[in-house]
Amino acid sequence: MDKLKILSDTENYLKNSLDKLKDVKIEDLQSLKLNSLQFRNAAEASLSLKMLKKSSNPIIYVIELETKSIKKELLINFDEFTTYNIQKTKNKDRVNVSGDMKRDSHVLYVGSSTTDFKSRIKNHLGVRGNRVYSLHLCKMG
Question: For the residues 114-124, what does the mean pLDDT come to?
Answer without folding.
Answer: 82
